[in-house]
Structures are given as C-alpha cells and as structure tokens.
Amino acid sequence: MFEKKLNAVQLSGLIIGPILGSGIILLPPIIYDVAGDYAIFSWIAIILINWFFAFLFGTLSVKFPGDSGVTQAVEDVFGKYIKYLTSFFLIGAVCFGPIAVLMTAAQFLQFDGFLSTKWIAVLLMGITILILLLNVSFIGKIAFVLSSVAALLLFSGGLTSLIQYPKAELFTTSFDLSSFGFSLLLLFWTIVGWEVIGNYSSEVRDVRSTIPKAIGFSALIITIVFLIVAASIQWSDIHSISGASKMTVASILTPIFGGLTGLIMGIIAPGLCLSSIILFIGGTARLIRSMAEEGILPKRLSYRTKTNVPLGGIIALSCFHIFVFILIFCDWINVTQIIAIADGFFISNVFVTMLAAIKLFNQKIVKTAIALMLLVLFVFLSFSSPIVLVCIAILTVGFVYKQIKSNTNESRKDSGKDLLMVD
User: Fold this and answer.
1) Alpha helices by DSSP H, 330-384
2) Which among 12, 109, 243, 282 has the fewest CB atoms less than 10 Å away?
3) Other C-beta atoms lying within 10 Å of the C-beta of residue 83
4) For residue range 127-185, what is the model confidence (pLDDT) as tens digits?
5) CB burial of residue 422 (10 Å; 0-12, 13-18, 19+)
C-alpha cells in the first residue's frame, strides 16, 4: 500500500499551471483580434464553463477515486468497454497534445539560434520525463511554484498596465456573432485539463477534502488571471507607448520589467507549458497502468517504481512522442495538425464522460447544463479533421459492439440462473 501524499496545495499546483498553460500566453491577443472589444465577454463565458467543468470533474473524481480517474464513472453507467473507449480517447489525445505545447514553449527559448525550435522541444521533453520520475509530492511542489510565479507575474503585469496605461474608450467596435462564436471555439483550449485531475485521486491524503479545496482554489486563481490578462490586452495602451506594432502578453509585463521582459517570458511560458505536460502525461500514465493491470494493455505497462511512479506508462507515452517528433522533423505533420488531432480526442473523451454524468447527477439544473454543453462539444467535434473523426468512429463502433455483446452475454447468464432457480 502506497502512502497518499498530495495535499490541497500540491494538487492545486498540478491544476493551475496546466489550465493556464500555453493558452494564457497565446490566446488573449488572438481572441481580441477575433472578437474585438467584445472579447472580454468571450473570456467571461469560458470562465463560467471552466467553473462548470471544475465542479463536474471534481465531483466525479471524489465519487470515483483511483488511477482510472473519471473513466470509472463511465463504467458505472455504460459498462467497462465504454470506459476503455474513453480511456483510449484520452491516451490518443496525450500521445499528440504535449508535443504542440512543447513546440510553443520552445519558441520562447531560442538560445541565439544555437538550437532550432524542434531540438529545444526535444530537450524540454527530456526534462519533463526526468521530472515525472520524481516523487509525486515533489512534482506537486515544483508545479505549484511554477504556477504561482507565472500567475503572480501575469497578474501584476496586467494590473499595472491597466492602471498606468488605460484606454480612453472601452468599447469602439461592433458586435459580430460569428466572430464571437469563433472566439469561444478557440478558447476551448483553456478548458482542457480538468478531466485528468481524477487520475491523481488515489495519491491524495483525503479525497473528499483535498480535491474540492484544490479545485475551488485553482478555479479562483485561474479566473483572476484570465480576467486581468484579457482585460489588460483589451483595455491598456502599453503597446503603443513601447513602440510595439501589436499587443501581446509580453507587452503587459513591460511596465514592470522593462528590458527584462523577454527573459521573464522565457521563464513564464516554458514553466506553464511544462506544468501542463506534467499533469497530462503523469495522469495518463497512471491510466495506462490501471488498464494494464486490468489486462487491456500489455502487462509490462503496469510497472511502477517503489515511489509509485507509473514508469511503464511514461515510457509508452515517451516512445510515441518520439515517433511524433520524427514526423515533425520529416515535415510530415505540423503543430496546427497536432492540436487538431489532440482536440478531437480530448473532446470525445469529455463528451462520453458528460453523457455518463447526466445519469449520475440528480439535480435538474446540472442535467440541463450538461445537455447544453454536450451540444456545444458536438459542434466543436464537427470541426475536427476527417482522419480524426474516422479514427474516433472506428474506436466507438468497436467498443460499443463489444459492450453490447458483453451485455447480451450477461443477460443470457442471468436468464440461465433464473431457469435453474425455477427448476
């Protein structure tokens, strides 16, 4: 029996940084370009959705603790083969997604052209693997420090920009529904992460106390940072004063750090990106270990160290990541395609989990909110590439068939027992 080690602070470290992730660095100026002065309402909408996801997956993680995470809830409602389906959706997403995040982080670490972006991403991947081999409580502390520093710097820079360089007019552009809708689609990237928290539930000290505290605190910090950064991008004039042609997240740090802004961004961006990757690879490696113990994946993947590190799962994911890097170096795939593939699998994973949640929650308002969110996710999924949709369809048909067959066999066994009892 392994000692449960993560407390609320350490678990929040595994949440805040990953949810902020690369999205808080890249998306604020993009959303402002797309939605104009109404971009702030896109952020408010996505913040509300974030709170809903935090509540939903936090509740499921408490109710169904273990390395399998919230996929256990899916099994409780639909059966074990649908649970395996959602598990493969998550594994598929994490086979690709971290590479896109690494490539984003690498853009902020150029080393005067000594290494290309691709090789820097490979180096960061190696560092991530080394961190993942450490004790989980120590990883939580590292993630909390990285998350705290990034959140504090972004909050301070954004607030300073708003106070010192405010715009004279807050709303000058007209509202466009299509642009507003597209901005929400882009902001889905900031929601990804809550569904993985449950995979760490078997390693916290008190599931019923720790997870709600960590998720509530994390959602609050994420909300504050989202609002301050988005508002400062939209309502401060610092970029015109600094001479920059376009507002960026780096611009809002200039009033505090001046010429050191580039260096600071070289700390914040990789820190947030690495936090995100640590969460997803660590959580998914635990899921792989659980599936290997159930016999769905090769038994060797269930290997874990004396400190409970899921080494088999980490090695399996790392091997696939090497394969994706080879595709990148050969120019057979790019970051945009990688994100599209990962998003398709992420959305599919969340979609099935939320279908299960409709049955598990008794409150009508929660059921209604989930149903509306399912419609939104279905629209999002329709924008995935045809290849990804075909893969999702094949997996779905295969595992649904197995589940139906399993249910039929169980029914026959029960009928046989009933006949024996009658005799």
Assistant:
1) 335-360, 364-382
2) 243
3) 27
4) 989 888 887 777 777 777 877 888 888 889 889 888 888 876 777 777 777 788 777 77
5) exposed
Nearest to 349 by CA among 132, 125, 12, 96: 96
Structure-token match 């590479």, residue found = 99
Report the CATH number at residue 325: 1.20.1740.10
Place of tokens 């038994």: 299
Q: Return the closest-CA partner of residue 91 out of 296, 300, 285, 335.
A: 285
Query: Is 105 inside a domain boundary?
Result: yes
Q: Cα dihedral sign for 141, 347, 392, 356?
A: positive
Nearest CA to 161 among 223, 219, 240, 222?
Answer: 240
**Domain encompassing residue 364:** 8-405
Residue 410 lies in a domain: no
* Helices then strands, each counted (H, E), the chain: 16, 0
What the block records as the tokens of 231 is 């508002």
Whole-number Å distance between alpha carbons of 376 and 365: 17
The three-state secondary structure class of 236 is: strand
End-to-end Cα spacing for the chain? 46
Domain-located, residue 422 = no
Looking at the structure of the chain, the number of domains it has is: 1
In a domain, 3, yes or no: no
Tens digits of per-residue pLDDT, 365-416? 888 888 888 888 887 777 677 888 899 999 999 999 999 988 887 776 766 6
